[in-house]
Automatic annotation (TrEMBL):
The keyword Ion transport does not apply. GO terms for molecular function: rRNA binding; structural constituent of ribosome. This is Small ribosomal subunit protein uS17. InterPro entries: NA-bd_OB-fold, Ribosomal_uS17, Ribosomal_uS17_bact/chlr, Ribosomal_uS17_CS. The gene is rpsQ. It comes from the Bacteria.
Length: 83
């Protein structure tokens, strides 16, 4: 069985070792054809607390780590510049 991977944007980093990642899915509506954006939010494990809000990250499915956490951050693709 293949391991699921998603790329999304960090929308919250207020928890310890956990980030909330929003993953967008853009698909045409089956009847009308308009592109519809569906957003799914995943809680992901971030061991080093390196992710910040606005970072683009790759997450990977893993065993259940808590009641709602089933994903882990594998890499930070684009870190948001802090000024």
């Amino acid at each position: 069985m293949a391991i699921k991977e998603r790329v999304g944007l960090v929308v919250s980093d207020k928890m310890q070792k956990t980030v909330v990642v929003a993953v967008e899915n853009r698909a045409p509506h089956p009847k009308y054809g308009k592109i519809v954006v569906q957003t799914r939010r995943y809680k992901a494990h971030d061991e080093e607390n390196q992710c910040k809000v606005g970072d683009r990250v790759r997450i990977q499915e893993t065993r259940p780590l808590s009641k709602t956490k089933r994903w882990q951050v594998t890499e930070v693709l684009n870190a948001k510049a802090t000024t």
